[in-house]
Amino acid sequence: MARLSSFLGKLLPQLFRRPDTTVEPANLRDAPRLSQLHRAAFHRGWSTEEFEQILIERNAFAHRLRLGGSTIGFIISRTAADEAEILSVAVAQKHRGHGLSRDLLRTHLGHLAGHGLKTVFLEVEENNRPARALYERAGFRVVGRRDRYYKDAGGEQLNAVVMRRDLS
Ligand SMILES: CC(C)(COP(=O)(O)OP(=O)(O)OC[C@H]1O[C@@H](n2cnc3c(N)ncnc32)[C@H](O)[C@@H]1OP(=O)(O)O)[C@@H](O)C(=O)NCCC(=O)NCCS
């Protein structure tokens, strides 16, 4: 019995261990991979060129989530005056559910705060539960609603909520 519990004591943390990831600033060279991740995550995926156009802007901030030698997620924002808007965040499907987006968002918000940004906004489809849980846990609150803001793959119109978080 003691041997079994010792075995389980070693095995279980291994099974539920979070992957060893890092969050790093992303740059123009990441555009093709970010586009790939975006296309896999969203109905209207952004092209490499669209990412390049955003990343080239001086007021764009992006981070990539790395596992081993691969980029498995990203977050990207655009800023104006002392406000930022999170434009997109995604984690590759097979790596979801391990809390990795929390690290990505926390690092990104820290970076925005470090650049003097005071408030962050975002829009998210109102029934996107993982995303809403992510943002709510990070301190975002719903401040508005946009009816029929998105269209899903079947053409159905979906509402969005606007969320806000102050950076202190
Ligand atoms: C949103 C997204 C980035 C979250 O990434 P992730 O690394 O899987 O997120 P986490 O594992 O940190 O989970 C986030 C929260 O969602 C919850 N969650 C995960 N899957 C869920 C599901 N299917 N239904 C409901 N809640 C879910 C988790 O429990 C967690 O909440 P908690 O912190 O209160 O426990 C990821 O789901 C994704 O890439 N989705 C597609 C793109 C997208 O919708 N982006 C957001 C658009 S604004």
- Note the total helix count: 5
Number of domains: 1
Overall 3D shape: globular
Q: Quickly give the CATH architecture.
A: 3-Layer(aba) Sandwich
CATH superfamily (homologous) name: Gcn5-related N-acetyltransferase (GNAT)
Would you kindly provide a written description of the structure presented here, covering whatever features stand out?
The protein is α+β, with helices and mostly antiparallel strands and 168 residues long. It has 5 helices and 7 strands. Strands 1-2-3-4-5-7-6 form a 7-stranded mixed sheet, sandwiched between helices. The longest helix has 15 residues, at 100-114. The N and C termini lie far apart (51 Å). The structure holds coenzyme A. Residues 41, 89-91, 96-102, 124, 128-131, 133-134, 137 line the site of coenzyme A.
Quick overview:
This protein is α+β, with helices and mostly antiparallel strands. It has helices at residues 2-15, 31-41, 48-55, 100-114, 129-137, and strands at 21-25, 60-67, 70-80, 83-91, 119-125, 141-151, 157-166.
Helices and strands in order, then pairings?
Elements: H1 2-15, E1 21-25, H2 31-41, H3 48-55, E2 60-67, E3 70-80, E4 83-91, H4 100-114, E5 119-125, H5 129-137, E6 141-151, E7 157-166
Parallel strand pairs: 4-5
Antiparallel strand pairs: 1-2, 2-3, 3-4, 5-7, 6-7
Helix pairs in contact: 2-3
The protein binds coenzyme A.
